[in-house]
Amino acid sequence: MSLILRQTTEQQGRIDLRGITPDRLADLELAVIAQQPITVDNQQDPLSSHFTIEGTPSDELTIIPLNNRVDGIGAGMIHGTLQVTGDTGHYIGSAMQGGKLLVKGSCGDFTGSALQGGELIVQGDVGDAAGAPLAGGLRGQNGGVIYIQGNAGDRTGECQRRGLIIIEGDTGALTGYRMIAGTIYVGGCSGEQTGLNMRRGTILLRQRPTQLPITLNYSGALPLTIITLLMHPLRQYLAKQTPPYSTSKRMDRYVGDLACKGQGEIIILC
């Protein structure tokens, strides 16, 4: 049986649940878990003052928030399975190293920021800076998978270095901004300045963009044998929604950003 944390107080400010992860709670007694400190409106309170604690401590944890003002869920998680039922706040899964985090709702800004490993799945929308660096940091996502079944805001995948980001819906401006490596897939419309200042990495667009930065060089419509390798991990998540492809199909390819001597690529799948 898993451990279930159910929010009981609908506060006006914000709750920060950093440190409340399955790997940290699995070996603790319920009484000890109840006294774990959480930050509520810049003050520390025991966990039990805002959440009921049910079930048995294990590497499976379920959190049920009352609103989208609960931040930091799954931040720094190393292993285990964490499920969130409902909308959440900011920094969900930030600096996550391993395990699986499933959000049955939408998330705020900095979802999966500086993610290093593991699997983060959001069944709703996310705000700005998904997979981007933490505030003041230089490294974005450095491994693992971020799968967003809804829409994403601005600066998704900023400074991404490794790993995979999948967005089924639309993205805002500056998707892949300053991207260094890794792969981003956008199933809907991509916002302005997609791929700006990218140095390496691949952005796959299911829909043709209205405009790309002028410093991305069009290299032609080409048959790309590498597309099979790129599509393999997408199929695991998108299943029947995976775009049709073949190594003989010609696809428009852009290379850059030439303004920073970049060698990244944007491939138009349609």
In short:
This is Formylmethanofuran dehydrogenase subunit C. With 270 residues, this protein is mostly beta strands.
Structural key phrases:
single chain; 270 residues; mainly beta; Pectate Lyase C-like; 2 domains; 13-stranded mixed beta sheet; 4-stranded mixed beta sheet; 17 strands; 8% helix; elongated; Formylmethanofuran_DH_suC
What report would you give on this structure?
This protein is mainly β and 270 residues long. It has 2 domains: 1-59, no CATH class; 72-268, 3 Solenoid (Pectate Lyase C-like), CATH 2.160.20. Helix content is 8%, strand content 30%. Strands 5-1-6-8-9-10-11-12-13-14-17-16-15 form a 13-stranded mixed beta sheet. Strands 4-3-2-7 form a 4-stranded mixed beta sheet, with no helix packed on it. The mean pLDDT is 93. InterPro entries: Formylmethanofuran_DH_suC, Glu_synth_asu_C_sf.
